[in-house]
Amino acid sequence: MDASATSVEHPDIAELESQLTTGSEKTQLPVMAQLQAAGADGCQVLQRFLLNRRQDVATFIDGRGYELLLQTETDETQTFLQENFPAGVVALNSEVGADYLPLQKLLARQQFEEADRLTLHKLCELEGPVAVKRKWIYFTQIEQFPISDLQTMDRLWFVHSEGKFGFSVQRQLWLSLGRNWEALWSKIDWRTGRDWTRYPDGFTWDLTAPKGHLPLSNQLRGVQVMNALLNHPAWKS
């Protein structure tokens, strides 16, 4: 057998790489899973793909690629992530020096219930120590929240949910429904008929949830908090 043949990339891997780099997002998601399942050669393709896209704003495609490499847990892959994406694929910007790395880690592993609780804590941090102590936010304070901080939290949710979750997703749905709150609650499964979804067991903490289902945004405090969040200047800049 020709020794050089062993160095030739498997044709299936080459075909998958072509689909990954030229295909639509709908094609890319399953292709990435196939590449991860293919082992070391497939993971190397995912690594090249992430590196080539690093200069762009992260999308859920980048998020999924990162998540699959994170799940691989081989020394080579973990070294690659630590050297090239030590804080993930989303820029963790904050105007107030907030640390969003713990939120990134939870969302990258799709630990959505824990991430939701941490998101509320981070929102309380933006309001101040009193809000952190009482564990909820006043809607009147939300307009003053830093744009970059809300955008960072939103982008983390969006990128690590295949584009299903986040404040901006909830806002888009709300606008598409003519700013009708009652229609939104049903659309995102926060209410069924007259019954509000019970926290936490009534909510769905994985990607089978409807679009916009998470984060909960302190929803137990009523419509005013959501109204303030979805009207924040962060989504208009």
From TrEMBL:
Query: One of this protein's Pfam families, by short name?
Result: GUN4
Molecular function (Gene Ontology), one example: tetrapyrrole binding
Give the matching CDD domains. GUN4 (cd16383)
Gene3D superfamilies, per database record: 1.25.40.620, Gun4-like (1.10.10.1770)
Sequence ranges assigned to domain GUN4-like in this UniProt record: 94-233
Q: Name one GO cellular component term.
A: outer membrane-bounded periplasmic space
Q: Where is the GUN4 N-terminal ARM-like repeat domain?
A: 9-86
By what name is this protein known? Answer: Ycf53-like protein
Protein source organism: Acaryochloris thomasi RCC1774
